[in-house]
Amino acid sequence: MYEKHLDALIRVRAEQRELHDGGMRAQLDDIEAELTYLRLRESTPRTVVEVGSLHGWSTTWILRALRDNGFGRLATFDIVDGARRDVPAGLADGRWTFVRGDVRDTVGAVPGDIDYLFVDAAHTARFARWYLAELFTRLRPGTPVSVHDVFHHARPLPFSEGAVVLKWLADQGITSFTAARAAAADVYERITRTRVRLGIAEPVHRGTANPMIFFRTR
Q: What is the distance in angstroms between the CA of the first residue and the CA of the last residue of the chain?
């Protein structure tokens, strides 16, 4: 995917660096942000749901993928509206809907057909149990999903969101992928070497944990 979409990724990294240098705070580290973009380019979703956006860093990566695909819409749910203030209007127009409030209260606004689900909100076991029951049950088999902040350590903390999600995946027989340094150092290093070879290793954002997991539903 890195090689296939290299030219577009170089452009997107430059655009994101401009936002970051202009003051937008980043919640995703570079590799997990790039993998999100690349996965969206490959899966070509028509409807993406983002639960948790904060300042809009992940939102802009997602919107750029939809822009570069030439179609698709994003529905974002968050209790704060920093993203609505910070996401560039030209990137948002015609492809983005923002719903302010706890998604547990605004779940009626979640689109019926979700082609990609991105979760980066309350990192609690209770919230994970909620979205597993209320959102994951809406997903068709094979739907791509990203869940952030799972692998800050080699294993997620007990009774955390990550622990709940990983147990659910194991129960479903679903294998996840991560480039987290703490949990998959070999993967992280292979991707890092690839980025060096392709000339895109200069950081946009200096975080290196990349704790996100990626998988598809069954």
A: 23
